[in-house]
Specification:
mainly beta; 6-stranded mixed β-sheet; 4 helices; binds CU-O-CU linkage; binds copper (II) ion
Length: 500
């Protein structure tokens, strides 16, 4: 079904009393504001990466960090000020870089952000009381110390998860990168240091004065017409003619992307959500749903100094008048440099989990029903568990999306899983690794397999279109015996906080 923009709807007379009355099937991809955001010329602003956060203190086992959530006024569009709600006042927030098996304690302080928060470190096998359970809220004037074990090397991200407000809070800026590395990975000849670059892609909609517009179109989806990379509209990154490793996160609320290079050269995918794959997968393009992470190497040695290469999105809102979402960022090769890096044919063994090792299969239908987003017909209920595997059980979850109008990236907390098949066929070459988000396109189904552990307790599953999650495409499962009263185990405390 061809999506329809709000402007087209206006022309077609499909708006009544200011609200969109569309046949439900038309409400797929969407418009980007009536007037469009203030214009920015793509590839004119410099690329940057978020700063790496220093611990406030370290001991033999643990690094202690502190992050304050606050409102801040920042320049995103040239010469305009934008209010964001952000970790340490910057968005994306500071990057935490940690070594495997060292523990992190991160104190998240809810200072002036003006709304209750819950912080989820997406991809970490945290204990339930540190997992950002949606109802485990830290109110303004409180703080909470989250403990993270860092038990494997991967590209993670932290973001808000407050019940019914996740989409708005993340959209306003509450998101940041969290990288865990280990020696095995550092020993590989992959690009490192300055050549290992995080990329957070988000789409935003701005008003004329630079203000962020959050409009979920009646609890459907939030789309923007400006693509930010690490908080900068369509930046230009100056690179050397060598290989770079990019850790790409789709941090958008509702928009997915299909990434490709303008030159037609491959992106060499080396990692999925939860770390390196067994072997590199060179692909012409790959799609990335919200909260998915892919790591890809781009080899700029093929290009002469002076060449510009655009990172494209092959699934933009073509029928929008606001061109822009077809571009993500640009690379400009500006210097020659020797390249000691290479991409080994074996990265890290991802041992396939055999379907025959599963003790049961569960089925989850993600759909729209009576104006709500539901899983097996149900909305969020903090007293109901929709699955209860025992610790160590291997299960297959079959995830369906039977509708034509939407796609749902499904996130399962706590565990890393593998895709057994997609619509009965093999998964795409680039998704044959450990994953915690599964792109379930229109009329698609995936079977995923994983082992429940290492923790017991209560964990959430939801669509990572956070508008869908908020209203109310989210449920929970328990591993072993579990309590829903997580806040009691590690409560948020009142400020002022004692020294960490
Ligand atoms: Cu990234 Cu439950 O979310
Ligand atoms: Cu969804």
């Amino acid at each position: 079904m061809t999506p329809i923009t709000r402007r087209q709807a206006l022309k077609l007379g499909m708006l009544a009393g200011g609200s969109l009355i569309l046949p439900i099937a038309f409400q797929g991809r969407s418009y980007a504001g009536d007037a469009g955001s203030p214009k920015v010329t793509p590839f004119t602003l410099p690329f940057r990466v978020p700063p790496v956060l220093k611990p406030v203190r370290s001991d033999s086992t643990t690094d202690y960090y502190e992050i304050t959530m606050k409102k801040a006024s920042v320049e995103i569009l040239p010469k305009l000020k934008t209010e964001v709600w952000a970790y340490n006042g910057i968005t994306p927030g500071p990057t935490i870089k940690q070594n495997k098996d060292r523990r992190s304690v991160v104190r998240f302080i809810n200072n002036s952000v003006g709304t209750p928060t819950s912080v989820h470190l997406h991809g970490m096998a945290s204990l339930p009381e540190y997992d950002g359970y949606a109802e485990d809220l830290t109110n303004p004037g409180q703080y909470k110390d989250y403990i993270y074990p860092n038990n494997r090397a991967a590209t993670l991200w932290y973001h808000d998860h407050a019940i019914h407000k996740t989409a708005r809070n993340v959209y306003m800026g509450l998101a940041g990168m969290y990288l865990v590395q280990d020696q095995e990975e550092l020993n590989l000849p992959l690009p490192k240091g300055d050549y290992d670059v995080p990329i957070v892609i988000q789409d935003k909609q701005f008003g004329a004065s630079g203000n962020l517009i959050f409009d979920d179109q009646g609890e459907d989806s939030q789309f923007g017409d400006v693509i930010l990379v690490n908080g900068v509209p369509w930046p230009k990154m100056q690179v050397a003619n060598r290989k770079y490793r990019f850790r790409i996160l789709n941090g958008s609320v509702s928009r997915s992307y299909e990434l490709a290079l303008s030159t037609g050269e491959p992106l060499i995918v080396i990692g999925t959500d939860a770390g390196l794959m067994s072997a590199p997968a060179p692909v012409k393009s790959f799609r990335i749903g919200m909260a998915e992470r892919y790591e890809a190497v781009i080899d700029f040695s093929k290009y002469k100094v002076g060449t510009k290469i655009t990172l494209k999105n092959l699934q933009p809102d073509n029928n929008d008048n606001y061109d822009g979402t077809e571009n993500v960022m640009q690379f400009e090769v500006i210097r020659s440099e020797s390249d000691p890096s290479s991409i080994p044919s074996k990265l890290r063994l991802v041992q396939p989990i055999a379907a025959s090792s599963a003790v049961r299969t569960r089925e989850f239908r993600y759909e729209r029903s009576n104006g709500l987003w539901v899983i097996n017909g149900k909305t969020w209920d903090n007293q109901r568990f929709d699955a209860s595997p025992q610790l160590g059980d291997v299960e297959i979850w079959k995830i369906y999306n039977n509708a034509g109008g939407w796609f749902h990236p499904i996130h399962i907390h706590l565990i890393d899983m593998q895709i057994l098949d997609r619509n009965g066929n093999a998964p795409f070459a680039y998704e044959k690794g450990w994953k915690d988000v599964f792109y379930v396109g229109a009329n698609e189904s995936v079977r995923v397999i994983g082992k429940f552990g290492p923790n017991t307790g209560t964990y959430m599953t939801h669509c990572h279109n956070t508008v869908h999650e908020d209203h109310d495409m989210m449920n929970q499962f328990k591993v072993g015996a579990a309590s829903v009263n997580l806040a009691a185990k590690a409560p948020a405390k009142s400020l002022p906080a004692p020294a960490l």
